[in-house]
Amino acid sequence: MTKTSPAMRIAVVISGSGSNLQAIIDAVAAGQLNATICCVVSNVPGVHGLTRAAAAGIATELIDHRGFDNREAFDQALCEAAHTHGADVIVLAGFMRILSDEFFKLWTGPMLNIHPSLLPSYPGMNTHERVIADGGRWHGASVHFVIPQLDAGPVIIRGACPVLPRDTAQALANRVHAVEHRIYPQALAWLAAGRLNLSENQVLLDGTRHP
Ligand code: GRF
Known about the structure:
- This protein has helices spanning 19-29, 48-55, 71-84, 101-106, 127-133, 169-192, and strands spanning 8-14, 35-42, 60-62, 89-92, 111-115, 138-145, 155-162, 196-199, 202-205, 208-209.
- It is of the alpha/beta class and 211 residues long.
- The longest helix has 24 residues, at 169-192.
- 5-O-phosphono-beta-D-ribofuranosylamine binds next to helix 1 and strand 5.
């Protein structure tokens, strides 16, 4: 009999629609990602991502940041939820808050984020609008390990898509979303399979520098 390692336990943290969460749920269900989503945490009440989680039978937690005196207290509650649900990894999927330094003291496990640009280009907000305004020909998304500096952690995978003539920000966002739904489950599958490592701030896939 072969011994299989227990599935990686993922806490997904959202603030909105949760289409990336859905892609991860679907990848787990399809057997493409050896993981269990142990909880979905939202800092915003009533978002569609919470409905998606409940429909998939996943535990949900609402941790409304407005109920906390300061950023550190919210971050502590978020970290406690991940620990309570036995998470091995935190996956930020459209989570629209900046984490404090305190968070990085409390959570020492892996944490991933998806950002709608080809990092290191276009960190920050409104990436689709900025790429169009700059006349960029290519855009896309990146999955990266999270470090205290915003959108600056080591990149695990990038996915590109073209910017088409007369693209609106929404049309471009839709194209980028399709890329995101492919690359986030892929990055998590690599992590779950133990194929990702970090060496001096550089991602290694199967021991080789990547991407
Ligand atoms: C995505 O574009 C992601 O890159 C960004 O927030 C958006 C979340 O979308 N961080 P969704 O909630 O997963 O649909």
